[in-house]
Structures
1.
Amino acid sequence: MAEAILDARGLRKSFGALAATDGVDLDLREGETHAIIGPNGAGKTTLISQLAGNLRPDAGSIRFAGEDVTRLSAPQRAKMGFARSFQITSIYRDFTALDNVALAVQAHAGHSFRFWRPARAERALRDPARAVLEEVGLGARADVLAANLAHGEQRQLEVAMALATRPRLLLLDEPVAGMGLEESQRMVQFLAGLKGKRSIILVEHDMDAVFTLADRISVLVYGRIIASGAPTEVRANPEVRRAYLGEES
Amino acid sequence: MRARTLILAACVLLLAAMPALATLLGQPFYIDLLRRVMIFAIAAASLNLILGYGGLVSFGHAAYLGVGGYAVGILAFYGVHNGWLQWAVAIVASALVALAIGAVSVRTRGIHFIMITLAFTQMLYYLGVSVEEFGGDDGMRLKAKSRFSGLIDLDDPVAFYYLVLVLLLAVIYLVHRLVNSRFGMVLRAAKSNEARSRAIGFSPYPYQLTAFVISGALCGLAGALLANHTAYITPAFMEWTRSGEIMFMVILGGMGTVPGPALGAFALLIVEDLLAGWTQHWQIVLGPLLVLSVLFFRRGLAGLLPGGGRNG
C-alpha cells in the first residue's frame, strides 16, 4: 500500500454520554477519493470536523503526510494543505464571488499584515482567484455578491475556495446537499474531474455521487466504521444493507 | 458613486468654509460646536474600524478618550506642555491600554466581549474618580493647551478647528486604506464568517487584536483633542454612556461605511444641540428619534447617500 497522506487511528469523541466517534481508523492515499457514508446521526460531520481540526478528538491520532497533526488548529492545518467545505454552505455572503476566492488565495500568500495597498487591486490575488472561478464554472458570476448566487452556485463557490488554497487534502462535507438534479450532476462531474489529482475525503448522502466518485467507501454507523472497501464490496456487504434498511424501516 | 463623492466633497468644503461663515453670521459658537462634533467623529471613525468592519462590539471605547485626555492633562499638570510629546504619549498609552484590554477581550465573542470591554472601561472610570491628585470626581483643569513649537496655536479657535478637520479627514482616509488592504480584508472576512476564515487558514485573533489596538490609538488621539477642546479633563470622558454615544454615532451613520461615523457624529450631536436649545427635556425627544432612525435607516445615514451603504 502506498504511503497514506492522511492516517487517523483510534479516534474517539464523545458529547456527554453519546460516543459520536467511537474508535475510528481511517486512511487516505495520495490521489484517492475516500467516501464516508452512513445514516443520519452516524457522526460523519463530527468525524470530518476532527480531521479538519475544528474539533479536538478525546483520543486517537491524526497523521498528515507523516506528521502528527492531532493537536493543530484548523488554521494551522489549512496552512499545511487541508481544505474543507461545510455541510451547510459556508461562504462570505456579503462579499462578491471573486472576493471570496481571492480571500482563500490570500490566506495562503503569506501573512496579511499589509495595511496600505488595496487588496482588490492586487493581481497576485485576483488572477489566481479568477482562474479558479473559471475552473468551477463561475467565471461569469465573479462580481455577483455571494449572497445573491443560487444555492448550487454557492456550493460551487465553496469548492472553489477550497481549491484556491491549492490543497493537498480536500474534506468535502456533502457537496451536493440540497442541490437540484442538474446542479448536483454538474458538481459530480466537476469533482470527477479532480479524481486522481486531489486526495479527497467525501462525506455524502447521495449514493449516485458516492458510487461515481469514490475509490473506496467506509460506512459509519453510530460512530463506528462497520465496513470499508471498494464500492462493489461495500454495496454487497450484508451488514451495510442491514444498517441502511434499519434506518429506513 | 460619482454623486456620492460629490456630496461628500461638498460636505468637506462646507466644513472648511464654516469658520468664515460662522464669523460672517456672527455665530462664532458654531466653530466650537463643530470642532467638538469632529472630535467625536474621529472617535466614532476609530470605533467603526473594529465595530463596523471587525464586528467587535466594543462597549468601552470611551476608555481611550479618557486615556488620551488624561495623558495630556497629567503631563500638563507636571508642567510638560509640549504637544508633540503629549499627543504621542496619548496615542501610545491608548494603544497599550487597548492591547491589554484587547488581549483579554478579543478572544471572546458576543455578549462576553461587550461586557469585558465595558468592565475595563468602568475600572478606568473609577480609577479616574479615585485619584485625588488629578481632581478625582471633579476632574482637573488643563492649565495650558498643547504647544506645537509655535507651529499652531490651539488657543486660536479657528486654527484649532482646522487642525481637527485635517485630523478627521486623515483618520477617515487611514481607516479607508486599512479596511481595503489585505489586513482589512482579513478583518472583514472574520466578521462575515469566522468558521470559513479558519477553514481557509486565517487565524483571526492577531488581526483583530491589531485592529483593536489601532482603533484604541486613534481614539486616544481624539481624547487628546477633546482635552484641549474642553480644557478640562474629568472621569466623565470615560463614562459608559459616552461609550454608548460613540457606538450610536457609528450605528446611526452606518456601520462599516467610510463616511458613516462622521455623519452619525454630526447628526447626533447637532440634533442634540438643537433640541437642548429648544427644551430642557431634550432627551425625551432624542430617544424616540434615535429609535426611529435605527428602524428606518437600516444601513445608517450613509445608506441614504447615492451608492448606498456598501463600502467599496
2.
Amino acid sequence: MRELCDAAVDAAVAAGATYADARVVVRRDQRVSTRNRKADDVTDVESAGIGVRVLVGGAWGFASTRDLTSAGDTALRAVRFATASPGRHERALAPIAPARGTWRIEVEIDPFSVTVDDKISLLLRAEEAMQHADVKVTEAFASARRETKWFASSEGAATEQERVECGAGIDATGVDDDGYQVRSYPSQHGGTTALGGWEVVLALELEREAPRVADQVAALLRADVCPPTVTTVVIDSDQMQLQVHESVGHPTELDRVLGAEAAYAGTSFLRAGDAGSLRYGSPLMNITADATTPLGLGTFGWDDEGVSAARSDIVREGVLVGWMDSRELGGGGFMRADGWARMPLVRMTNLHLEPGDGSFDELLDGVDEGIYLETNKSWSIDDKRLNFQFGTQIAWEIRNGKLGRMLRDATYTGVTPQFWASLDAVAGPEEWKLGGLTNCGKGQPGQGARVSHGAAPSRFREVRVGVRA
Amino acid sequence: MTALEIAHRALELAGGDAEALVHVERSGMARFAASEVHQPTLIENMIVQLRVAANGNVGSAQTNSVDDDALRTLAERARAAAAPDPDFPGFAEAAKPADVEGWDEETAALSPDEQASRAASAFDVPLPVYGFFTSGATDLALATTNGFAAQQRLTDASVRVLAATEGASGWAERTSWRVADVDPPGAAQEAADKAGRTREAVTVEPQRFRAVLEPYAIAELLQWFAFSAWNGLAFLEERSFFADRLGKRVLDPKISVVDDRTWDLPRPFDFEGTPTAPLALVEEGVGRAVCWDRRTAARAGTQSTGHAGPPAERAWGPYPTALRLAPGDAESLEELAELVGDGIYVTRVHYLGIVQPREGVLTGMTRDGTFRIRGGKIAEPLVNLRFTVAMPDLLGEVPGLTRYTQLCGQSDFYDERYAIAARVPALATASFNVTGVGSEPGL
C-alpha cells in the first residue's frame, strides 16, 4: 500500500502539484444489535480505497477511488479538479518534519475473533435483564471497527497506522399517553465507543446495569414533567461531554471561525483574534484537546496530514487560549477524514473538561434548590454555537443538597459564554468519565467523525430549564 | 459488467437464498467558501451488499471489491454473520418496477472542470458566497434468488448557496435530476438579495407567533417530523405521532402529504426490491398511512409500501424520503404574509433536534433570513430565533399555502450517495413557538 501512496503522490507532483498526499484506508466495521430479545441487525462492512489530495497553484483538489490499481489516474483527476478551481490566494502549509513510522493500538481481545453468536448472546442477556412490565422496547448493540491507514506525502512523510475500536450500549423505551421515555446505558448515542478491543465492551457490564435502566424507564412514565424555571443545575458526565462537544469543541475549530463551514455546519461566535483574551467561562473552566488520551477515539499517531499527536490547551481558567486547526491554518494536528473517500477536515481529537475538586455529593451540597440532569436525549445549537437547547433522559429535583423527586422531559437552554460563565463547580478526578461519540457530522459531502470527551459532573447557576413546545 | 450483472454474479457465488444490492457512485462536489472552491471532492465507488438466508438464519455483509474472489469472501462473511431471524419475511419476488425518468446524459457527463465552473458561476454576486455545486451519477441494482431483478440509473445535481457577510446572510438552493434545472447564478442572486434585506436585525420577545415558512424551512421540518411520524417501526413501537391517530383529522384540512418516488428524484424500487408507488400519508388533515418495509409490514399484517432504506439506515425503520406537501392557492409569499398579518417570516432552519417524537416536538434555530411580519407585510429583519414546535400544532392551523412548490434537497451526502428531496410549497401557520433568541444573521 505504501507503494500505491507513493505512486499517487509522484503522479500528482509530475502533473504540477506543489504538494500532494495520499491515503489508502482499509476498514472493517461490524455491528450487531438485538431488539426485543431477537437478533435485529448484523452487518459486516469492508471498504478499501485511496484518496489523493493536491495543491495546484494555491487550490486544493481531492479525488478518491475504490480501484487501487488506478492510484495514478486518481491523482491526475485531483490535479485536474484543483486546476479547474483556481483560488484567489496562495495556500501555504505550516512546516513540519515529515512523519515516518508505524503506530498501532494493542488490544487484549480482537473483536473480530469473537463470534457473532457470542456477541448476540451477550446482548440478549442484557436485554433479558431489562424485561419489565412497563418497558415497550429493549435494544442492545455492539460494534467493532478495524482501520488500517497508509499515508505518504510529497514532503517525504510515510506512515502506517492501525486502530481498533469497540462500543456497546443498551436502551429501554416506555410509552404512555403523554409521550415516550427512554433510558440508555452508558449513553444515548449507540452506547459508548472507545479505542480498544472487545475488552471495552466487556468492561461496560451491560447486564449489570440493565435492571436499573428498565426500572428508571418505568419510573419516568409516572414522573412529573420538569417545570419551567430558572435555577441551578448539576449536569452529569455524559451530558457534560455533549455540552463540551457542541458549545466548546465546534466553535474552537478554526476552519469554522474562518467560514469554511458557513453554509452547512455553521461558523463560530469566536473571532480569530480572540485567542489569549476572550473570556469563555468561569475560571473553573479548563478545556484541553488531547490526541494521546488512552481509549480516546480521537487518539492517533499522526493526523491525516502527518502531524504528530499532541495535547494542547483550548481554554485555560476560563480564557480562550488555543484553536483546533490545520497546517493550512498555521498549526495542525486536528485534520481527519472519514475514510478514503473524503477530504481531511479540522476535527476535534479528544476534547476534555478538566476535573475540579470534590465529589458528586459535594456538588449537590451547594444547591438549596435545583435540578440534576442526566444522559442526553435531544440536542440543538445555532450556527454560531451560541444558543443551545438540550434535553436529558432523566432529571431529579435537588432540595437542600439532596436528590428529590424524579422529573421527565427535562430540557435546558442557554447562550454559550453566559452559560459557561455560570459554572461554579466541577467535580474531581474520581468523578471524571470518558465517553466516545461516533456521530459527529461535518463537511460536504458529509463526514462522520469519532471523538471522545472526558468530563466530570458540573454545576451551573441561573439556567433556564423546562422549555416546552 | 453492469451493476445488475455484478448483483447476479454475487448471487451465483453465494449459492442458496440470497439478495444482492449493488450501488455504483461517480460524483463530484465543488464546495466553496468566500466565493472560492476550498474543498473539491471526486468520488468513485461501488458497493455490494449481500444478504444470505439459510435454516432460519439471516446474515449480511458488504464490500467494495467486486472480483470473484472478493464476492466469494463476501458470501463467507455474510454466512458467518448469520443469526436466527424468526421474523424474516423472505427476499423479494419477481416484480416490475415502474418506468421512471431520472437519468440525464448531460448531468452524468459533467466533468470535474464543468462541476468547478458551475460552482464558480455562483460567485458573481455582491456578497461572498458559501455552499457547493455537486452532480453525481449512480446505479442501483438489486437481485434476489426469489426472482426480483432490477436496475436503476439516476443522476442528481444540486447547488446550495449562502450569501453572507458580517451581520447579513441569505440562502437559496436548487435540486434536480437534470443539471439544466439547476441554476447556480439564480440561486446565488436569490441568496444575495435575501441577505441584503437582513442587515441591522433586531430581537423579539420569545412567544408563539403566526409565521410564513419558505419551502426551505417547511421541507426540513417536515422531513424531520417524518423520521418518526410516518415510520412504520416507530408506529409499531408507539413512538410515532400517528400511532393511534390514523383515520383521524389531526392536521389542518389544507394539509395533504404524499410520499412519491415516481418523479423528481425517482426511486422505482426500494432497497429490498419492492416497487414504489405514491403513498398518501395525510389527506386533507386526516392521517392515512405510515411507511412499511417487508419486515415491519409482516409484523403489522400488511404489505410493504416500498420504504426499505439503504443498508446502513435499515435499523431506523422505514420512513418517507420523497415527501410532497400539496400546494394551496396563494400566489406568492407576500400573499401568505397578508394571511398571517402579524407574525414572523422564516427562510431556513438549522440543526433540528427531536425533543419528543410521539408528539412531534422539534427544536431548532432560524437562520439566513428571518423577518417580522407587520400589517400583512414583510418588515424588519430579526436575529436568529430558537423555536420549539409541535409539528401537529404548526400544521394544525394553516391559513394558506402557495400555489408554487419547490424541490428542496434533503441529502447531506454522508456515506453512499442516495439523493433525496422534498417538494413543498411555502406555508403560513398560526402557531410557531419561539422559545429563545440567538445572534444576528451572517458570519
